[in-house]
Specification:
With 195 residues, the chain is α/β, with parallel strands linked by helices. It has a single domain, classed as 3-Layer(aba) Sandwich (Rossmann fold), CATH 3.40.50.10420. The chain contains four helices and 13 strands. It has an eight-stranded mixed beta sheet with strand order 6-3-2-1-7-10-12-13. A hairpin with a 6-residue loop joins strand 2 and strand 3. Helix 2 packs parallel to helix 3. It is globular, with a radius of gyration of 16 Å. The N and C termini lie far apart (36 Å).
Length: 195
């Protein structure tokens, strides 16, 4: 019987995504809040102390970044958020206050308005990246649309993934185009990965 792409990494990613979401969604709001606070404090120590940091606004049960945004701004750093570029698989980053983000029409994520100040990828000191599942080697499974993979292919800046410990697996299925991360930060530890 011939094999298809669904028989390999894509199928394993789909299964990984489903099981990680079940574990993440099983955390109580209080557990997520406490873990997100610990993740923010730990992540701050992994980020450059100068320059613009690309952050994400949490969607659903993702590790929250509101506290990390406030900590970065308190030490004088600029924070940028991603915006989906219509008709492409890349993200554009814009300097924006967390309160100024609006829900995107297609994906329902919070993103800057189109008129917010854009910032070039090479001006970003580090990327803080969400995901559904991660491993300690820098592997990441997102929602399967490939926006971060396509975008990060054009940048060598450090990549820091945030997740709850329950989202961390021994190994993530990978494809050649998947962007590796440098550090995975959970409420329990910061795991350094070799990109």
């Amino acid at each position: 019987m011939p094999t298809t792409p669904e028989d390999g990494p894509r199928r394993r990613k789909r299964v990984t995504r489903q099981s990680a979401l079940v574990r993440r969604d099983a955390l109580s709001p209080g557990e997520r809040e406490r873990a997100s606070a610990a993740i923010a404090a730990r992540a701050l120590g992994e980020l450059p102390q100068q320059g613009t940091i690309a952050l994400y606004a949490a969607k659903g049960t993702e590790a929250a970044t509101i506290a990390l945004d406030a900590m970065l701004r308190a030490r004088g750093q600029v924070v940028a958020y991603p915006r989906v570029v219509d008709g492409t698989r890349v993200l554009a980053f814009h300097v924006a206050e967390r309160e100024a983000l609006v829900a995107s029409v297609g994906l329902g994520i919070l993103e800057p308005r189109a008129e917010a100040l854009p910032i070039a990828l090479d001006a970003i000191a580090a990327f803080v990246i969400p995901g559904v599942a991660f491993d300690r080697a820098g592997g990441r499974v997102g929602w399967g649309r490939g926006y971060y993979d396509a975008t990060l292919a054009s940048s060598d800046a450090p990549r820091i993934g945030l997740c709850f410990e329950c989202q961390l697996l021994d190994e993530i299925p990978r494809e050649p185009h998947d962007a590796r991360l440098d550090v995975i930060v959970t409420e329990a530890a910061a795991y350094l990965a070799a990109r």
